[in-house]
Amino acid sequence: MAEDRKHTLSPSAWNRFETCPRMYWLSRQRLPRKAGMAASVGTAVHASVEDLLQLDLSGRKPDETHWLPEIAESFLKVRWEEEKKVFLSTPRRPMWKEKEWDKAKKMQRGAIKMLLEFVGASGVTPLKTTVALWKSLLSRVIAVEGELRTSDDRLMGRLDMLFADVSDDGSLNGWIVADLKTGRAPEKELKAEVQRQLLLYRDILLSNNPNAPPVKTEGWYTANATRYTANGDSVMEDALAAWEATKPSEKPLEATPGQSSCGGFCDWKAWCPHWWNWRLESGTLGKDDFSDSVILLHHFDDNTGSGVAEICEPADITGRAMPTGLQIPISFDGRGKEALQELLSTGHQGPIFVGSVMTNRSTWRVGHWCDVLPWSPIADA
């Protein structure tokens, strides 16, 4: 029985559940996952920084400089290629963008800047960083790329970096949990969900180490090379309540359709009828410049990618597709075209979910960023 399956709740899963329980439930059904360029770049940067924090510098002269930029870029390149391979092996993916390489290097430089500032070397460039200075940083590393889990295995998190916080005389002040963030930096303070994530990391660490020194958690944002501290009371009780509410269930959890869930980015719309009904009832179906839709494909030219599609609407709450008779020209290109060809090669002939289609023109465009999936709504019962 699903209810008997063991499950562990992470901060991201907790956020997903709060946004929409059905979204969370669908994310646990082993449905095809979507690769994303931003996530892949972030993972490559994370891994390269972790490599730098486990660097073996034995045999190098303490005053050696000009070594860090080359090693840092070589680590990033290896991780970049690893992520690219994983990305391209994921069937549900957009286009890989080589031009993001420069952004990845900038993110890594932001991370290195914060690491140097952490050991009091503000203003020191990677080029001028000595081996001795980097060794002083390494001496304060307690752990990198660790997994935090409560003793009962109910709650978990991914620990990027754990440092010793030491005073000028070398005495230990406490521990610092540093979570590397490659997304948009806060305008003033941490978002509520990020604040909660960091506090949960602190709480798990303290629950596993009752004799630990004071623990501080920080979000390290590479975009502006700035550290943000998370302060607040324990969130452990709330997290355990969320764990209880997210126990595995054969029955789909409640959907909470609305702008924050269905109007935003949800990777599971091809299996959920509720966003579609909400769009229809709110009068917003197909009204955005980039829209999600369910179509019937009446014609498709395999060479040019052009075709004719009929727009569908939900016939009922189950998401059964009802043709409207409204036919529109549609064009598939890049990864969007490849995804359609892969779907048609399976013999699929029914309704098709197309996500983030450019609909603000006479001919709809399904480009490399779009989802093209069989429409497979999972009913409530």
How would you describe this protein?
This protein is an alpha+beta fold. The protein has 2 domains: 2-240, Alpha-Beta Complex (Lambda Exonuclease, Chain A), CATH 3.90.320; 269-374, OB fold (Dihydrolipoamide Acetyltransferase, E2P), CATH 2.40.50. It is built from 10 helices and 11 strands. It has helices at residues 11-19, 21-27, 37-52, 68-88, 101-118, 131-138, 192-208, 236-245, 274-282, 334-344; strands at 141-149, 156-166, 172-181, 215-221, 226-230, 290-300, 306-314, 321-332, 352-358, 364-366, 371-374. It has a 6-stranded mixed sheet with strand order 10-8-7-6-9-11, with helices on one face. It has a 5-stranded mixed sheet with strand order 1-2-3-4-5, sandwiched between helices. β4 (215-221) and β5 (226-230) form a beta hairpin. α1 (11-19) packs across α2, α3 (37-52) runs parallel beside α5 (101-118) and α4 (68-88) crosses α5. The longest helix has 21 residues, at 68-88.
Overall SS class: alpha+beta
Count the domains: 2
**Residue fraction in strands:** 15-25%
Share in helix: 25-40%
**For the report, how would you describe the main beta sheet?**
6 strands, mixed
Q: Quick one: CATH class of the largest domain?
A: Alpha Beta
How many distinct beta strands? Answer: 11
Low-confidence stretches: none
Mean pLDDT value: 95
How far is it from the N-terminal to the C-terminal residue, by CA?
A: 16 Å
Strand order of the largest sheet: 10-8-7-6-9-11
In angstroms, what is the radius of gyration? 24 Å
Q: How many DSSP H or I helices?
A: 10
Q: Tell the overall outline.
A: globular
At the third CATH level, what is the topology name of the largest domain? Lambda Exonuclease, Chain A
What is the N-to-C succession of helices and strands?
A: HHHHHHEEEHEEHHEEEHEEE
CATH architecture of the largest domain: Alpha-Beta Complex
